[in-house]
């Protein structure tokens, strides 16, 4: 067992080696390796599966009482500066290792079929393996320097994968937007790391928190400076986990292949920010102002993501804003000190959201032969509907993920989300109110997505590339700008269920979506006074004081308000988008009803515009930052070109013409020199006489 603990570094090494092998094959044998597509994907899947088995073994050892294991190598020696690299294995790390490897293996199996006919198939698996290895290295990091290195690797891989189809302008713009936005957060993270090193003299998580506490106890710390350092450090997770106001890259990241959306939104990139805040939780707890900022940022992000998701037409972007909202819940939980609830929701949400994104990939895969390969059509829920009868397995697995995200018992997210709702209400009722209201919105927009996609009639033929167009409003009625039409029934194609390779991950992911939530619930308080997850986390490096010893019956009673709110949201979604809603609604003729209709329509227009224009935040950034920056650059360019360069060029031109003039004067004749000398003396004397 000791040998395995000493070789934990093999877990990220296996997917890294797979990436290296595929990359070298593409570089040296670009044509030959394309004939071995299945073998290439199998290498990635097998190598990562080995890492997954090791992760499960280490997880079992950690939860059964094995001590925290840390191994460090000296990297840099310079005077008093010592940088170390290595790995840290505690229950938090082992949980994250299992989470990342299981979701990544399912995504790779799914991608084997989803991406099979893509020209960049092998390159995709090369990037995917590197992406997974970077995230595994991040969660194993024992200090801030090493975590920053892998943090940047995760960002680089996300850039490559979001822009995988870079020939599409929207994908190229999306990966640049994600890269630039995350660089803002990463710069803040770097400043925070350096600031805390200046305060404590350490990059190590445990030593940093310990020394900070000692200095704080003896009042040897400038709290204002420490608070700024903590806020700068928090800026990294704000960008990486798509928190307001650096969330703008997340919906555009849907330009990447759908399996990447599943991996980014479930277990890798967005989870990295939550993981870092959890790792630094002991330090943040010593700064109450920073904890308040974290909680409010989380609450605003949760509410903002939910409101923008209300009227999205793009299936993947609707799920993307759902991810943003759920990440806000996790950050809210950490900000109010509910460490276990935040990590609990990270786990349950990861499996549910991976299931939803892979299910959306199956839907898009089946829609493309019918409506075309343009994402504006194949991902547009206006062209879907009635897919349950054609894709029953995808529909039921998607429904399970939807019920989980809505917080319906006994699905996984119910247990974690309700714990966040109750704790936030007890901490501060305003935050609790925002969380409860967001829960109702979540139930509405998630079932809106489900009903528009899988229920009703299939609408894939209500379109024409050149002349016809239509849209479904926020309130469900189908409004056609042109006359609706249908093609001949004989020539119709209909969606079909995905193949078994793509269905296998969906079925497997339904298991944790159903049962993973039970790890955080205390069923029998007589035998043990804490639930499994709380017990595991108390063994970790970041042991915490909060223990959820609430009785199971009391917990269920406390969840009644949230369940009622969730069902109310589902009921509204059913009334507006359920299978029985018709394409045409009769006009109400009563005067009082027409006024209500006008008010209702104005409100729906406002919600639609709020959602369509992404709460106008992108437009604000474009007007205030992008355009002003471009204007400033033009001014600087003008000054540089015409003033700075103009002065230099003017001196050069003057010197040139001065030299050209003097060469005619200095001809080498003494008579000429005497003439100019006498002439100049005459002018000088004349000037002196006049003065």
TrEMBL record:
User: From which organism does this entry originate?
Assistant: Dumortiera hirsuta
NCBIfam families listed in its UniProt record? NDH_I_L, PRK06590.1
Chief location category:
plastid
Domain NADH-Ubiquinone oxidoreductase (complex I) chain 5 N-terminal residues, every copy: 75-125
Q: Where in the cell is it found?
A: Plastid, Chloroplast thylakoid membrane
- Family, as annotated: Belongs to the complex I subunit 5 family.
Protein name per the record: NAD(P)H-quinone oxidoreductase subunit 5, chloroplastic
Subunit composition and interactions: NDH is composed of at least 16 different subunits, 5 of which are encoded in the nucleus.
What range(s) does the NADH:quinone oxidoreductase/Mrp antiporter transmembrane domain occupy?
141-442
Membrane topology value: Multi-pass membrane protein
Task: Outline what the protein does.
Answer: NDH shuttles electrons from NAD(P)H:plastoquinone, via FMN and iron-sulfur (Fe-S) centers, to quinones in the photosynthetic chain and possibly in a chloroplast respiratory chain. The immediate electron acceptor for the enzyme in this species is believed to be plastoquinone. Couples the redox reaction to proton translocation, and thus conserves the redox energy in a proton gradient.
